[in-house]
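User: Show me an example of a complex going from sequences to structure tokens.

Assistant: Sure. Here are the input components:
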Amino acid sequence: MYNLMNDWYLNLAFSALLIFIGLYCLLSMRNLIKLLIAVEVIAKGITLALIATSNARGFILTGQSLVITFIVIEVSVVAVALAIIINLYRHTGSLDVKKLTKLKG
Amino acid sequence: MVVLFIFIPFILAAILPLIEKVSKRFLPDLLTNAGILFLLVYTMTFGYKLVATNTGIRQLEWFAQPLNITFALDGFSLFMLFAIYLLSFGVTLFSIDYMEHYGSKGIFYALFMIMVGGMSGLVLATDLFTIYVFLEVSAISSYGLVAYGLKHDELEASFKYLMLSAVATAFLLLGIGLIFGITGSLKLGDIADKFSAHDLKFVIGICTGFFIFGFGLKAALVPFHSWLPDAHPSAPAPISAMLSGLLIKVSGVYALTRIFLNVFGLTPALSTILMYLGIVSILVGAIIALGQTDFKRMLAYSSISQVGYIILGFGAGTPLAIMGALFHILNHALAKGLLFLNSGSVEHATGTRELDKMGGLAKKMPITAATTVVGSLSVAGVPPLNGFWSKLLIIIGLLQAKAYGFAFIAVLASIITLWYYIIIQRRAFFGKLKDTLKDVKEVPFWMALSTVLIALVCIIIGVSFWVFIAKWITPAANILEMGAKYARIFLRI
Amino acid sequence: MNPANLLIPIILPVIVAIIAILIPRSIKGLREFLAIIGGAILIYVAWLLFDYKNLNYSSQWLDWLNFDLRLYNFSAFSLLWINIFGFLISLYSYIKMKDHPRVAEYYCYIYLTIAFANGAILADNFMVLLFFWEGLLLTLYALITLGNTANTQATATKAFIINGLCDFSMILGIGILWKITGTPSLSEIAHNPVRPEGLALLSFIMIMIGALGKGGSMPFHTWIPDAAIDAPVSVMAFLPGALEKLLGIFLLTRVSVEWFAIKGTPASIILMIIGSITIVFAVLMALIQKDYKKLLSFHAISQYGYMVLGIGTALPIGIIGGIFHMLNNAIYKSGLFMVAGAVEHRTGTTEMKRLGGLKEDMPITALCYLILAAAISGIWPLNGFVSKELVIHGAYETGFVIFAIAGWVGAIFTFVSFLKAGHSIFLGPRNKEIPKVKEAESPFIIPMVVLAVICIIFGVYNYLPFKYFFEPILEMQHEVGVHHDFSGHALDLVNPVAGVSLFMLLIGLTIHLYGWNKAEKKASMASEVIHRLPILSTLYDWSEARFFDLYEQGIKFLKGLAHILYVAIDRPIDYFYEKTVTITGNTFTKILQYAHNGHYANYLAWCIAGLVLIVYVLLSLVK
Amino acid sequence: MNIETITILAVFVPIIGSLTIPVAGLISKSFRSVWSVLLGLATALFPLLLIPFALSGNSHIFGRSLIMGMDFYLIVDGLSVFMSIVSSFIGMLIVLYSIGYVSHDENQSEYYLMVLLFIGSMMGLVYSANLIFMYLFWEITAICSWRLVGFYRDKIHILRADKTFLVTFGGAVFMLFGFIQIYGYTNSFNVFDMRGTLIPGSAVLLILIGMFAKSATVPIQTWLPDAGVAPSTVTALLHAAVLVKIGVYAYARIFNYTFAMPQAWQVAIPILAVISSIVAAGAATVENDLKRILAYSTVSQIGYIFLGLSVMEPTAITGAILYLLMHGLAKAGLFLCAGIIEHNTHTKDIRQLGGLIKTMPITAVAFLISAFSVIGIPPLGGFFSKFMVILGTVKSGNLWLAAVALFTAVMTAFYLFRVFNMVFLGEAKVTAKEGTNSMLFVVVVLAILSVLAGIFIAYPMKLAQIATTQILRIGL
Amino acid sequence: MQILYLISLIGIILFSVLAILFKDLLKAALSLMGASVFLAVVFFMLKAPYAGVFEISVVAGLITVLFVSTIGLTRGDANGGESRLSGIIFPLFFIWFVIIDILIMYALLNQYPATTSANPESGTFGQAFWQKRTFDLIGQIGIIFAGVFSVLALFRKKDKDV
């Protein structure tokens, strides 16, 4: 029987959608925290793709290991990013990415 | 004990913040320097012997019980380790004095060590996902280090760096996932095997694209370079040296090369793409560096340009080009590291990075000026310094690959490179001393020592290039020349 | 005789020169004494060599070329006369140059000149010839700088450049000849002269320019009148008056006769044309000069035209005439310059309108002038008549009568101008500004008198020079059996050529008298009649404006060319490096800098665009 | 000492010795000066020791293989010995002259270091038998010239120094590209392996760019006059004696000695050389800055040397090799005289100078003698070289080129006299005194050498001929 | 079961879209949490319970806490300045991409049919995680160190003013 859950392409399509949503936000939004949320959305797309792939190929155990490691990485990145954002906010009093153009040229 | 390459940095990183409570300066300085020096010597003695006796992979044994940690300690990774520790040693020496006024040396050294450990792990990894993990290790510590100064510039640069590389690594991981899905394994050897067995061009194409994006962003290839000119100048000088000198090469170039040359095999299409990326990077980096007024920003753009050379060399894929690219990794690491350290010295002494506010510093800072000349000429590829030989090999290799146009542009770009380096010389060092700089002093001892040491290494490698090539480059190049066969044969475990 | 003796005429003057410059200023008289003694020894050596006639010397010099010297008839003759001139000039300089501030240098240069000239005469291969020949440039320049007017340096430079141009042209010609014949040896070439055709003609012209330039033929003459004012008189008497003519004719003869067989070729015609033009134009210029020395210097040019014309005929009679004329010219021209020196020495000027009536004060000088001027004007039976007749005869015999006519026209105006000069200096009323003067001192007088006597001897007893000097020279003409003895008809008045010549002298006298009357009895203005003639006056105006001065025009051309090269080639290249490259680089940099605007979204967009592009390219390349 | 030891010493004594100069400078100023002169003397001595060997007509190649064709080989033959004698000897004189000249300036340690390093790398370049090492030493000289041109550290000086460095470096990398292209065919960089190889036109072009850039030949000439802002010692070193000769030497070594060129280039290069010669002569006529005139004059004379080498005729090549010596002596003399003038009057504009012959008679005479040698008047040395170049050019059939070259000689005479007249003659516009003894000594020695080189032309000629024979592998 | 799966997938998308479209950062963060929860559900259904647990605890929990506290620290007041346009045109792009996405996936499906691996993995998660991925664990230690020290460095008190 056809199993939606095992349909690699379906899952990949959804994961691609998530990545797209994240990228769209990254390109168009201005709030720093929003951008970080967008990165998280992309990360979700990646985890979905990883799990879906390993599930479809029968390597779900390894897949889970990868995802768990990835989540740890994600947390670290988010933590560092948020720390930077807080520091930036202290400096500029703003969370607008368009104002972060001191470095250019 | 190959594992020491990773454990020593990590263990030092773990204890350094604690030690800082006991001794604010002396012990962290000593431990870091001693640790890196030990690793350097260990690489040159133990590591070299190990590689010389048998090529390929090592497995970690734990109480005579094989554990599932395998290291790809071959000529290539050993060479990278050598480069990492060599420059790191110079940087740690430099940091003794330089990082004084930044505060929290313990945490700084801890982050530094993690970065070094991450790079070592990346170099030794035999597993695609492990490569990714260690890439993130060094990347996350570098985010912290870039923002270490906690001023607006640093934070802004670090934020952009983080956000761009987060996207890039996401795509990288997607690529890894796809490959995992296709081949069912993450081991480089297995992947190489499967790739050669199946007709999977389409997926390989997509994965290659993702990898180029991921690693290319780390290596700051145009058009993925935009974070670099922000991040590298903003970091403290030793970190700039590490980032430009090593991180972009280890997490970008090394990974790219290892995967494309040893796992995927260098197909003509890939070769073309890499060469175009390389040449565009060379040109864009060089041209934009011309217009910079900020010392470190100019150096950062120069890094983009020089990485272009390396990628161009690997992309050409002829033996000499590969050798040249490998050699250029080390040479550029040393020279650019030296230059960034010197930019730190200048900033330390004058309090500015603006070239327009400097002038005639050679009179007050002769050591810095002299070492900067060495570094500049080395990067620009002026003999008899080391940078010349690597560029020469790359260009010979390009010509052997019949890539005349590329070689020609590469040659032209080296003129532009010299152009902006002599702009630095002209505005900062060579010339009449400005009145505002009358009371500038030469940098403290350790900083001077470190720069002099690196400059000497540059000169020594330059004048005894053949020894160095025979000893370090040829084993590494041999591995890369074997192409995918190497992974299939040696990276199987 | 030991061939190494050929080195004496070269080395001895050098030694004299070195000693002369080393003698300290405080020891008076020694230098002059040494110079005279040196000159005497040189004459003696030259006489011995002249007697010996045939000698070859060769020593190891360069690997591929020896230092070859060769003495034969012609060079023995020239050698002798050079050293005679040298001796006379050092004698003359004893008084004239005694108080000159740079007298040490003067003697040094004079003797170096003699050394170089001797070397050039004796040289038997191109390298040696050029070595000495070009060396003369150096001493010429140095000697002219000894003058002390404001323009001395400019004149010296002018002389150097003009002669340099001619010499470089000669180098090129010699290069071509060397290529054609394949040998640098002059005697080897002389065995088998080249016919001047094609490349060889070019070579001939090039070398000819060198010879003409040395002698000061038109259009390479223009430094001579300037030098007449700016250089010391003794230098003028020595160099353009005697030595350079000798060398020029020496080389020209060798070129035309020994190296090339120009007889009946265009080369011959070219030479004759140049000779004729030089005769006529220079004499016309000489005619209107206000300064006696300048007048003389133009005559020096004009007389050279006769020599060129004579040699250009390539007939024995013409060649003999040319050489003889050279000798005569050296004699009477040196004498005339010495007269100028004597007059200048006493009165302080040589401007003709400020002089007058000197015959009472300086009778011997006036007498000498009379003889010498008669000689140069070709009055029977002086030497000038003999040689001029031979030249015109030769020109006549070639069939191109026009060249003979040019010679006659020259004769008219030569006579006119010397009438004018003599008239205004020695006759007529005294100028009030000039105080009463005494006769010149004996060192002035003796050479003048000697020269005047030689003029008479060579005229009346012309078989002497013919026999001892010229007939041997003609032996190098290979046409055996040609009649070489011209002494018989040298003073012959009953032939058409001589008749026309005498008639010309009458015309000259008429013109002068007419002009003198016209100019209200002012002798110095007697030439104004000619000056005012319709076409001539325009020509004179042009030449006053230095329109014909090759040097002035050449320098203008050179400066213009230099300017064009500088502005059109050098500066644009510099502009390219300085500006074009920089601006291009900066423009690209600006564009790229503008693109790096610091916006995160922008950077990310690049990354994604790059990714899409790479994937697209990869997929299309893979398929 | 055998040949190899002497050669190695000749190359490495100045190079390593130069690095000790800052140390000597720490000890004392006078010790540094003495030490520099000693090193200069030693450097000048070693090549002289090689003369007997060179005169024997043999050549000796030795060294060791490194990797990938980048082998360290040295070649001792007529050409290299001749060139090294010229360079080291004039270099030594310039070091001597410097003692008086730079004694009041800053950065003397760097100055002497760079000068000696320059001479040393020149030795290395001359003796190198490997293209890559030739290039290596080539660039070291570029580095030295860069530091030396900017010696006075003014903004304009630095800009000019940068121009010098960039242009010569730019040219050199093109040359390197050419070398590599050749390597693609031959798999070797050793000149003795590749003798007689016919190389493609593109490689010739690339290598020529490098040589022309270094030797300041049109169209890459303008850095040389601009570099005249340097101390006169340096300009003498750069413009006259050594640096600009590098390109010429390399031409002789690479195109005459090693490779065969396509026919079209054999026709084109003499034309380029003559154009360069006349354009530079024109520029020299127009300029008013003393050192710029002399620099353009150098460009012009270099054109002659290129002409001599490129017509491939034994006489012309011998002449060109001799030219290296004669022009080195004479032009160094001119520049050093200009140095005395500049040093004592503080101006280089010939319009502001005049009448200096009264106060500086020795300088004036030395200047004049050197000028005559450059113009090519016997008995000075310049005559023989110029004549032989012209003769060879004519013999090779390039009549028009010879004519233009001779016209250039007339122009040379014109502008040098213009300089002499305006600087030394006329009314005195500035007051100045004669130079110091060491400076005068050097210019007088150079002037005398110019004369002696002409009178005893046979000796240098012999060596030059041996060099020609070895280059062309024929007898003359 | 499959319906639930599909709903979960759509839920992820929905909450993600909300997360990026909400002007209020707090709501956005909570939406992200929602997406994480749905993702965890999907993981459970795909037989990846450990990953699901991690997703809920760490991502939905820890990260949300981090976000919320950051929003608190920055007072969340900087949400102004966001252009309305990006929210308005989002659907257009979204639909456009959905179509492209479907097309690509369909094309891929035809070209490379998805095949399950012949020999699926055996053993337990513990074996897979601890034994096969040991090197990753070392890496994780590094990651945690790096994160912790970076945050420490960013929030340190500086000894001296620079």
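The lines above are the inputs; the final block is the predicted structure for all five components together. Chain B touches chain A through 36 residues (CB under 8 Å).
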